[in-house]
Amino acid sequence: MSKPTANWEKLGDKFYRKIQLYTAVFDQDLELENYNAVGAPYSGAVAIYRDENKITTYRGGQANKASIDIYSCAGKLIRRINWDKGTIKGLGWSEDEKLLVITADGTVRCYYDLQGDFFPFTLGHGADEHGVQSCKFYSSGFVALLGNNNLISVSSYTEPRPKLLAIPPAEPVISWGIIPPTYSLSRSVEVILAIGETLYVVDATEAENRNFDAGPFRHISVSPRGEFLAFYTDDGKVWVVSGDWSDKLSEYDSKVKTVPKDMQWCGSNAVALAWEDEVHLIGPNGAVTKFYYDAWIHLLPDVDGLRLLTNDVCEYLHKVPDASVEVFRIGSDSPAANLLEASSLLDQKSPKADDLIQLIRPSLAEAVDTCIRAAANEYNIHWQKQLLRAASFGKSVLDLYSSDDFVDTCDTLRVLNAVRFYEVGLPVSYEQYRRLTPEKLVDRLTNRNEYLLALRVASYLHLPTSHIHGHWAQQKVRVSTDTEEEICALIVKKLHGKPGISFEEIAHAAYDEGRVRLATELLNYEPRAGKQVPLLLNMKEDNIALDKAIESGDTDLVYHVLLHLRKKLPLASFFRVINSRPVASALVESSARDQDHELLKDLYYQDDRRLDGSNLLLSQALSSPSVTSAIDKLKSASTYLKDSRDSAATFQRHALDDAQKLLRLQEQFEKDLGPRDGSSSPSPGGNGSSFVGLSAHQTITALLRLGHTKRALKVQSEFKIPDKTYAWLRLRAFVAARHWTELEELGKAKKSPIGWEPYFNEILGAGNTRVASMFVPKCTGLSAAERVDMWMKCGLVVKAGEEASKAKDRALLEEVSAKASGSAKVEIERLLGMMGKR
Amino acid sequence: MAPITPFSASEIAEKARRDLLLLLEGIRGKKNLVLEKALAGSVNLLVKSSTLQEYGVDKFFFLENDNVNSSQRNVVFLVRGEKAKTVMAVADQIKRLRRDSQIEHEFSIFWVPRRTLVSDQLLEEAGVLGEASVSEWPLFFVPLADDVLSLELDDAVTDLYLRQDPTSIYLAARALMQQQQKHGLFPRIIGKGDNGKRLTDLLTRMRTEVTAGDASSSTSPSFLGLAPSSTADSLIIIDREVDFPTVLLTQLTYEGLLDEVFNISANQTEVDSSVVGGAAPQPGQSGSASTSRERKILIDSKDPLYATLGDSNFAIVGNLLNKAARRLQSSTGRDQLAAKTTAELRDFVAKLPGYQAEQASLKLHTSLAEEIIKYTHTDIFRRSLEVQQNIMSGLDPTTQHDTIDELINRDVPLHSILRLLCLESTTNAGMRPKDLESFKRTVIQAYGSQHILTLSNLEKMNLLQPRGGSGLGATPAAKPGSVTNYTPLRKSLKIWDDEVNEAEPNDISYTFSGYAPLSVRIIQSIIQKHTLANAIKPPSDPRAAAQANPLAQGLRIFDDASKYVRGATFDEKQTGEEKAIKARNMLNGSHNDGAKTIVVFFLGGVTRAEIAALRFIGGKLKEVGGEGERKQNCGVHHQHNQGWELG
Q1: Is there a single domain that holds both residue A507 and residue A553?
Q2: What residues make up the domain containing A552?
Q3: What parts of chain A have a pLDDT lower than 50?
Q4: Closest-CA residue to B444 (of B431, B454, B435)
Q5: Do A311 and A26 touch, CB atoms closer than 8 A?
Q6: DSSP-based helix, strand, coil % in chain B, nearest 5
Q7: What does the alpha-carbon distance between residue A697 and residue A729 come to, in Å, rounded to a whole number?
Q8: Cβ distance of A696 and B84 shorter than 8 Å
Q9: Does residue A716 form part of some domain?
Q10: CA-CA distance, A702 to A737, in Å (whole number)?
Q11: Based on the domain organization, do A621 and A698 belong to the same domain?
Q12: Pairing with B505, which of A1, A567, B212, B380 sits 20 to 30 Å away (CA)?
């Protein structure tokens, strides 16, 4: 076994290693130098497409067909997408392995699985006019540079919403780069443009000149986590600046005349410059190491390293993790290195093993941890084993040690080794695996149709498998040549009852494939109505969709279906559909009330709901601007009910006719009396300027206040308002208008339908004790004590005393006396004396 | 006590707050916020407006006013997306801004509580869907107090009972499901009312949907989540339809009267500043420095003074205020003089802010109470209360007609009259057709012909109906279960209590000074069987154990009573896989037999007085059985006038 340090290179005081992942990657005939290669993050698939700027030899018809080829890292062709849509101006991957292809006219195609299915959208903002120049991608979005230097940012592919960023100066852009929103200070995407000699930083709101005059800059590269920026100047220098622009960290002179074809970060600590067959790796403080190849080389940057791709090999260049350095560095005497040594001595049955263990005894736990970490980061299975064995040996010596990390690492390594296998071709590093998460890894396997492996991995890691099953089923309905019954039976047999299976998605796939019957069949197994309904609508199964929506109880779904139906069906059939479904018709009624009165009218007519129809007309009458049109509406509301015989309808007709009568009267009054006097204190209910709109009672009140008693009486008789009510209205109207004389006049009557007490109370409430007191003697129905109280309220103590003495109630009189004072006191005393005598 | 308290109000509030702020943070720069009026209260309750300003909100607008201007590039709409009307309003305003404004706006729409298909469809038709970035703010429950959660759906009653639109049931189910997913299923769902039944069915349905849907988390948490909870005992659902009279009565607790007089909405009420004094911002007052004459007052259950006042009968509030004033005076006054050593002084000074807050709160509540007294001393109030009490105690309602007539003649606000009329109708299974017709005519003559619609709506909701249902034909002659029959209930549930004690309440009847709300009685018949049984039929031998009372066995009272109560009765048990139950029990350890929460859900609103009554039961249970008790009153609270004056 070769030493693990064999592929290490020293760069400054750090080590980098270049791991050979796969050999014989591409067909030797493939002229990689004429292609662009773009790799998906986390060691995902590689897409290559012809670079149109390069001249190629003509080789007859068949090879000339343009295509985008998606390969695994091991060179296995996953998918070939035939391309005839024009010049590709940008091609990149999202974090979840969606392939984005942007053409010069601003059309974007998002290939969401690796199977060639895509959805398109356009950039807009003048992209078709000025043309897309190039694009830069980050984990969940991209920025496109147009011919007029406008920048368009798309930040999500689920609902792409291209946004125009601030407009930079229009001079030619030499190179550019982006800082992803996750790492920028402003939390939105920032673009760095090299224009002329300087740099501009552009975000959503402004384009700022950084006054960085060392340019022109040929390459701009942003480190994976945005903490550093690297620039390549025209005179062959590499500048590294911190992400917040505050520090210039290093400057390196490459002393090369040719501008490199690419510059990329390798992790966050080194920058790689690539020429055709040469790579320079530049570390901090100008340290450099060089690699030479004998074929054209492509750099595929990743979060923690760099993939190097040539026709022959796919290599992974990254910084050697600290744990590995500690264990493997030549001459290392760290505890971990000793532990590894001890473990191999043990294998050789050498007694020295124990000596070594005793030597590192104090830091053994740490040594075990280091070995585990080193194992996790190791690609070579032999050394993984060695390290784990050492860790296990160390563990056994320790009394107390939590084995969680050990077990975890063993599980992870098993998965990693499985997916790194060349037939799968996912050379994920440990760091990438942690960031990608196991769930996403399983998704990637699923997208590659590696169902068996995906299932094994998922069950090994205790992850849900429903998605894998779902994907399998979708694939099945797409490509299987079996009869529909067989497919359905097979899918149901395998998947029914498993939690998390979306039969809707499977049905959708079937429907897209044109297998409608299969889709309907499958949809029956979907328990979630929210999922069923839209597809059912697509499939034109409107009635079923409506029923399912109602069943779900989600009114949103019901509305959704109803809107759809309303647009599609003629009115009569629409009503027929909803008639048998009370919830649906209630919802139609409810929303029509807000928006569409015509529909409501038709609905009531259709259902023969006379009362509701008449109410609708009434509500229109109430909102109509003129009296005449209001009366007309009321009239039709009343005729609407002509044929109904039941009591509610009769009552309603009566009320409506009354309302018309009242309106006519009010109109008449207004003509006769002119607009009502607005200066008087606010009248009950009305706005103080018009009779129209008042109720019958209010009309009477208003008339009385203005002194038109005759007219008021007319209204009373017209509407058969009881005398009691009229008396009350008159009383309150007079009190409100302060018609004291009229009130006194009323007091001369013999009888009042409401008794005299209300007169007293109302007048007293208005503050006129004089007039109020006039009514006290008339309240004969009350007890003496109450009358005494009334006198007292008017401030007439003597009268109160007289009342008490008349009733011969001594206690009452004494009470009065206690409250009296001055001359009244004397008078009361006299009355008391009189009573005492008797 | 319990390891995870289900329905923790603060947790829910915090989550809602974070969600909203996160959404706002997602929009760069300053923005104008357009709010639906109905949401303003909830938002204000959850997030201070100063915090919103910190998150870049520049100006606030109401959707209904349609006046958002172009002063900011970013415009954010925060609206409910269930109704086509609001969706169209949003679309229109976006179109208007786009047309009129010089600058290019960035529109964002936060749908509450979810993004609906309809909203997408309508926005797309209006051609604005592409213009706006759409997200959702999943605000379901709004905590009003530590033990009260509300959905704050203002239109729920109109929708449910008048328009038969079950949207609110669905939202309620979603809200409850969300809690179930977090804390486990309610082992039992029991309750009364047709809509309640529908809600239960929806919950059952959602359970299967969730099991089928959740692929990502079919691992342990949700697996446990859908097992019965060990901290919640049951969910009691009361459909408002079951018991309308309680809402129609005047509430007589302090909080209830505050609501009657000043109208509480989302725990806030606006009071004329001449009543409470505009100066000296209270700790509870909202941060916005509005100088208008109306002052916003937050009903804060954390205020210790209010905590004692809120649920008390108003008759004793004066005494309580007095006592508090005296205590405060003695503790501030005497301490000040007595404080001699510096240490004592320091103690005193440290307590000062507390005293000041208390003093401010005392001042506030005293002036509020004075205002309420002014209201309760009016003749009109007394007369209408008299009518209510007479009707509830079982007097022949026709004897009250003269008083009602007089009140109409005195032109008291229409809603008071309607409350009395509906009360009579709902407690007596309708009114005599002749009486009803004459009242209807009088109301129309007194208040205007637009109220033909009001009355017709009330009839549709069965709040006002002729006896025997000869009228509309919509209600065929009182079928059992179609109408609540109060006459037998008055006895079997003792909903009228002649010996009410307002100062030291011994029964929930104190909340209405005699009437024990039927809704709460039903709940009692489920959870507090012994007490209720003894209250209804006092055992001849006081020493006889409660078990001896035959009424207390099983669900007898509940079953007996529900025969006379309108709507469906339901009692579902939710069980899970045995494994899961075991696992949950193990996780929660010995707490299993500790305190359990009973959740009460009012579908279609609850009054403040009912909440007080529930708290009273909760307190009693804690004393007697050592069984901890927290109740949640969800749904929409207090909706007296909703749906009445639809013109």
Answers
A1: no
A2: 528-605
A3: 62, 678-688
A4: B454
A5: yes
A6: 55, 15, 35
A7: 7
A8: no
A9: yes
A10: 10
A11: yes
A12: B380
Residues of A in contact with B450 (CB under 8 A): 622
Query: Do residues A654 and A698 share a domain?
Result: yes
Residues A755 and A733 in one domain: yes
Upper half-sphere CA count for residue B524 (Cβ side, 13 Å) = 32
**Residue A289: inside a domain:** no
Instruction: Tell if the CB–CB gap between A694 and B159 is shorter than 8 Å.
Output: no
Contacts of B437 in chain A (CB under 8 A): 647, 651
pLDDT tens readout for residues B300-335: 767 788 888 888 888 888 888 888 888 887 776 655
Nearest to A117, CA basis, from A427, A439, A471:
A471
B224 interfaces chain A, CB cutoff of 8 Å: no
**What is the rounded average pLDDT of the residues B175-185?**
82
- Which chain A residues are within 8 Å of B84, Cβ to Cβ? 559, 591, 594-595
Q: ipTM beyond 0.90?
A: no
Instruction: Tell me the CB-side half-sphere exposure of residue B75, using CA atoms within 13 A.
Output: 26
Confidence at B630, pLDDT banded by 50, 70, 90? very low
Structure tokens at A447: 């997208």
CA–CA min distance A158, chain B (Å)? 12
Q: Which of B411, B439, B454 to mutate to test the interface with A (most CBs of A within 10 A)?
A: B411
SS (H, E, C) B459-471: HHCCCCCEHHHCC
DSSP of A112-164:
-STTS-EEEEE--TTHHHH-EEEEEEETTEEEEEETTS-EEEE--SSS---EE
Residue A28 lies in a domain: no
Q: Identify the CA nearest to A238 among candidates A211, A266, A210.
A: A266
Partner-chain residue, chosen from A586, A623, A651, that has the shortest CB–CB distance to B165 = A586
Chain A: residue whose CA lies nearest to B168: A555
- Sort out which chain B residues have CB atoms less than 8 A from A695's CB and list them: 444-449
Q: Tell me, what's the pLDDT at B641?
A: 36
Q: B379 at the A interface (CB within 8 A)?
A: yes
The encoded tokens of residue A65 equal 């067909």
Q: Residue window 47-106, chain B: list those with CB within 8 Å of chain A.
A: 82-85, 88
Give per-residue pLDDT as tens, B435-456: 888 999 999 989 888 888 888 8
Number of structural domains, chain A?
Answer: 4
Q: Which of B28, B214, B409 sits opposite A725 (nearest CB)?
A: B409
Q: Decide if A534 and B117 are in contact by the 8 Å CB cutoff.
A: yes
* Residue-level pLDDT at A675: 60
Tell me which chain A residues have a C-beta less than 8 angstroms from the C-beta of B202: 553
Q: Which of B29, B121, B163 sits opposite A205 (nearest CB)?
A: B29
Instruction: Give yes or no: residues A772 and A756 share one domain.
Output: yes
Closest partner residue to B117 (CB to CB) among A501, A557, A732 is A557
Residue for token digits 């340019």?
A215
Q: Is B130 on the interface with A (CB under 8 A)?
A: yes
Query: Helix, strand or coil for residue A300?
Result: strand
Q: Which of A605, A629, A658 marks a domain boundary?
A: A605
